[in-house]
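Journal club side-thread
Mid-discussion, someone asked how the predicted structure for our own chain would compare to the paper's figures. Pasting it here so we can look after the session.
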Amino acid sequence: MGNRQSLVTGGGGFIGSHLVRQLLENDEMVRVLELPDVPLPENVEVVRGSICDAHIVRKALKGVQRLYHLAANPNLWAQRKSDFNLVNFEGTRTIFAEAAKQDLEVIVYTSTESILTGNARRDTLVDAAVVRKLSEMPGPYCRSKFLAEQEAFKAAKKGLPVVIVAPTLPIGPGDRWITPPTRMILDFLNAKTPAYLECGLNMVDVRDVAKGHILAAERGRIGERYILGNENLNLSELLGFIEEIAGLAMPKVRIPYWLALISGVLSELTADYVTHQAPRAPLTGVRLARYPMFFNSEKAINELGFPQSSLRKALVDEIEWLLNNGLIVRRLPLLKET
């Protein structure tokens, strides 16, 4: 195992950084393809550049046995909507085109749960076999990731050893970029969100997600998708957990979907044409919340041995990390800085 070289695209991201750490703990040689100025550990080989640059991708893939393709724009809003397509779709096409020229053992492609729900019923758990259409995607981020996942399936059919993983909402320590799940939790902790839109979520420890990538490389079936999730819960339940952990009162006012939708439209228009800053309620996020994002991860559990660590422990670790990094502006009665 010590002689194996793995390439992680997006190894400086939330999931990617945990994956890199676990690969290093497994005594693997790790190379990371990452954008300039993104912090990375000293004991990894680094190739700086974009996944959209075929020359850079070719350089990064040289001599690699395993490829973990995580690099993407994970946000629900961007000033230039075309950025989603450029990075998430075109970048993934470039990755697979260059990977086809190499002799790789396995390629693990990171998809997302946000393209799997569609118009899911409230009494239905979405499983890994679900098939969706482009017309069901609520916004440019989801459309770009849907098209990218389709490229992954096509690559597998053409003979590339591609295994697809679709994490649900990852939580835990170390989210330097403040991805959407962390932003939601942080805004509640900082009292920036006075009310909430009830919705169904599936949350998972980010460290389990990283482990799930490694398990997919070792045990996953080529051309198959695995949902890396854990606990299904309503947002009101999550707020109850946060209140219990932090000792801060969470919002009790629940707003209807139509009001959240209007707010999302207005905040996105303001972001696009006035502030040019990410809105607090991206329209894509509001649209995703219309249907419950409840998932069944039994395929990953049974075939990969995907772990199911305590969600509460992950939430405690995340809140402590946010506190220790100065991101929570309110005093937490039940937590102290360490």
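Post-session note: Residues 5-177+203-232+294-309 form a domain with the Rossmann fold fold (CATH 3.40.50.720).
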